[in-house]
Automatic annotation (TrEMBL):
Gene3D superfamilies named in the record: 3.30.420.40, Actin, Chain A, domain 4, Substrate Binding Domain Of DNAk, Chain A, domain 1
Listed Polar residues bias regions: 405-420
Name the UniProt record assigns to this protein: Heat shock 70 kDa protein 14
Region (Disordered): 376-454
Gene Ontology cellular component terms for the protein in this record: cytosol; nucleus
Pfam families: HSP70
């Protein structure tokens, strides 16, 4: 419904059909949530060119118009986005014509609504004591008090004190309250203590110190709370700046990314090097008789998006491969993303088959096993014409004396592509020689549902 409504608004303003789009998502979205956004966009009649992290969209909107970016030395900028329900922090390195995401950090349950809740609990207890009314027993009274507390928070952001007046809140009683900003910060202390966590984590993962961060930008509606600005200032040792529209920067960044990906618009050349916020591993059982699982990290945290990796397996029967999230400190992220069944297959020689799996991290941040190929060696007799015995020995095929790979104890060999970008061409390094025959195979996928978020 939301995407359909937005599509209608855009078509009304442009007087043209809207199909291609770029959708901003929080950096902490799971694999299942990303797939759900793509499905919702398809149902709404949209074709997403990219699911864009909100932190990256903000960084793009900030950097693409900068004409004074350095060519050699990197300019490091920290972005702190405090929204209504979550807080996201990113540190970005800028050079002329490009940006690179150095780190991501977040707190998915820290935002402006937590300050509203602190005020609500404060006045609910106060009114129960003074007016002998319990707003928790009346749903309508709860809603009216929450709305009044949200307005009160906004007033306190610009004034040192503010009144609260509600007519006929409950049992036909008018209520009045008053609070100072210092008292507000005192009752919000448990919330404010959590602000430093994402800041410290982002700085540590980027491998920087506060002195290496040249500028700090704050965005998001929740960042207007003075206590948050004070904490950010003390942490970085510099005053945060507000050079961007706090509420529109993500939408602007997504529009710019959509224009970059679209062949219709001509945009200033600007390279976006985004990083994946989680570590992804593949897990499999060593053999059919053993229940012991083995795993290897395919895409480490911060891996470039998009990316392709190739893995080589030696197997005799059909087997399953799980896509896992590893090194997770977030309880709301499921450990397993999906399961792929590789097979059936059969080697013509009756030995273990050599299989090459291609794993893709696509532009949306979704991991999948794209293909599985069985490689078979064929011995071929090649005519040789030589003038002497030395030349004949030099042209002898290497496969005659090559050791049998399947006889070795290695069950899996990870073949990573050359270069940091892990392009499809680079992932093909180590492809079978001319004497190997490739047999394409099908893979069955099963996506695991995530746990219900609280």
């Amino acid at each position: 419904m939301v995407l359909s409504n937005l599509k209608g608004i855009a078509e009304g303003n442009l007087n043209a059909a809207v199909v291609d789009c770029c959708i901003g998502i929080p950096v902490y979205f799971t694999d299942l949530q990303r797939r759900a956004v793509l499905d919702a966009a398809t149902i709404a009649g949209l074709q997403p060119l990219r699911l864009f992290h909100e932190t990256t969209a903000t960084a793009l909107a900030y950097g693409i118009y900068k004409t004074d970016l350095p060519e050699n030395e990197q300019l490091n900028v920290a972005f702190v986005d405090v929204g209504h329900a979550s807080m996201q922090v990113s540190i970005v390195g800028y050079k002329k014509g490009q940006l690179k995401m150095l780190s991501h950090a977040y707190d998915r349950s820290l935002g402006g609504r937590d300050f509203d809740e602190a005020l609500f609990k404060h006045f609910a207890a106060k009114f129960k004591e003074e007016y002998k009314i319990d707003v928790y027993q009346n749903a309508r009274a709860c809603i009216r008090l929450r709305v009044a507390c949200e307005k009160l928070k906004k007033v306190l952001s610009a004034n040192p004190e503010a009144p609260l007046n509600i007519e006929c809140l409950m049992d036909e009683k008018d209520v009045r309250g008053f609070i100072k900003r210092d008292e507000f910060e005192q009752i919000s202390a448990p919330v404010l203590e959590r602000v430093k966590g994402p800041l410290e984590k982002a700085l540590a993962e980027a491998g920087l110190t506060t002195e290496n961060v040249h500028f700090v930008e704050v965005v998001g509606s929740g960042s207007r709370v003075p206590a948050i600005i004070k904490i950010i200032t003390e942490f970085f040792g510099k005053e945060p700046r507000r050079t961007m529209n706090a509420s529109e920067c993500v939408a602007r960044g997504c529009a710019l990314q959509c224009a970059i990906l679209s062949p219709t618009f001509k945009v200033r050349e600007f390279q976006v090097n985004d990083g994946f916020p989680f570590s992804i591993a593949l897990s499999w059982k060593a053999d059919a008789q053993s229940n012991e699982a083995q795993q290897t990290i395919v895409f480490p945290k911060g891996n470039a998006i998009p990316s392709i990796k190739a893995l080589t397996f030696y197997r005799a029967n059909t087997f399953a491969v799980d896509v896992l999230n590893v090194d997770m400190n977030d309880d709301q992220i499921p450990p397993k993303n999906s399961t792929y069944t590789i097979g059936p297959f059969q080697s013509s020689k009756g030995e273990k088959a050599k299989l090459k799996l291609k794993v893709r991290l696509n532009i949306h941040g979704i991991v999948s096993v794209e293909s599985a190929t069985m490689l078979e060696e064929e011995e071929m007799e090649v005519p040789v014409s030589a003038t002497n015995e030395a030349q004949k020995d030099a042209t002898k095929m290497d496969t005659d004396d090559a050791p049998n790979d399947t006889a070795s104890g290695t069950d899996v060999n990870l073949q990573e592509s050359k270069g940091a970008t892990d392009t499809a061409e680079g992932a093909e390094n180590g492809a079978p020689a001319s004497e190997e025959k490739s047999v394409p195979m099908d893979t069955d996928v099963k996506v695991e549902p995530s746990k219900k978020e609280s």
